[in-house]
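User: Show me a protein chain along with its predicted structure.
Assistant: Here is one chain, sequence first, then structure tokens.
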Amino acid sequence: MKLRCLFLSALCAVAVTAGFTSCSDDDDDWNPTQEGSKINMVATRAFILNEGSYNGNNAGITYFDWRQDTTYISDLYFAQNGKNLGDTGQDIIASGNNIYVVVYGSNYIAKLNSVGVEQARLSFDSTVGKKVGQPRYAVEHNGYLYVTCYGGYVTKVNTTSMVAVDTVKVGLNPEYIAIDNGYIYCTNSGWGSDNRVARISINEFKKAEFFKVMDNPDHILAVNNRIFVQGYGAAYNYPWGELNTETGEFKEIGYCSSWAAHNGVIYLVNSVTDWNTHTTTNAFLTYDTRTNALATWNIKNIPAGLTSTSVSSMSINDKTGDIYIMTSDFVNNGSVYHVKADGTYVGNFQTTGITPRKIVFFD
């Protein structure tokens, strides 16, 4: 009993800013305790996956209210589950009332409910009889997760049972993954030795075909039935462009290190660091896939921290269209900068972990 009291006291102590808040009148029809939550939560909640440091066992999840940009819990996963998330938080996705977290170093995917309570997990030590390698990124479609695994596979996982049911061999060290028009697409980085995007029919899920892009491809986006790919490139200058999946032609458009898309517009940041002086410069752009117009993204009253700190990732709240730009020095807790699509700067707040990677939103 004494240990339980100490644990509950610790939960109260991890409030970051103003302490726990009660739900507003808008939240009266949602009760987080019905989902097993140990803490009070607002309905307009968002969760930031913090990667942590490699081999540090310090990946975690920051919980905040996206209406007010107020953080409440230093590590939501620990608060709800009484244990650490693990080593190297790689990806987080939300589907329905569930959250799926890919933990690369610890080699598993956790299925959480919408308040962060773990429901099940799948270890990738041995999946469907194969050593598929550690999981990287995931996408959900019709009750299945499709997961890139560093052994050179895309693995299909039943989201109800969290059991792997099939795999398809792709290229070397597959990274980001997307779905468009009945096909799965993933980049194959090969840690610099591959230059292809793999495509797999969802219905058949038997064999991959390949398209050549830049060296060491990384990110991939499906926007308006078009496929866009970003990578490190042979010169490590972060080229990006469009892959024409009918002709197989890849056309370079520009340079960016992070991006996110909403309503047909891709928001891009090119974060360049001079390692001789250790200074970083960030350039902000937009690309409208409806008009193919590439333009400067003018962020009004942009703070110095957003222009001179490495951008680790970007996420967009589909409910509002607002963009959240995450920065990191890869040693200390990261920061999140909230910007509206028209460039209006809203504010910023610190995450409660190292290297924020992605945000998922609920209401």
